[in-house]
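Quick one, T. Sequence first:
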Amino acid sequence: MLDYAVKITKDATKVWKADHEKLRAVGFEDQAILQITLIAAWFNYINRVADALGVGRD
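Structure tokens:
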């Protein structure tokens, strides 16, 4: 699951069906895969927004 989240973070265009199949093979159902995807994508989005606006910088 963490490898999948990292892959989304580094380059989501490289996520393939095989990545989802690996998650299913270790017990993740489609709903869980969707949740992992949404959470990772949301954190990536919000961090980029914060970085672009200089949030947390002095």
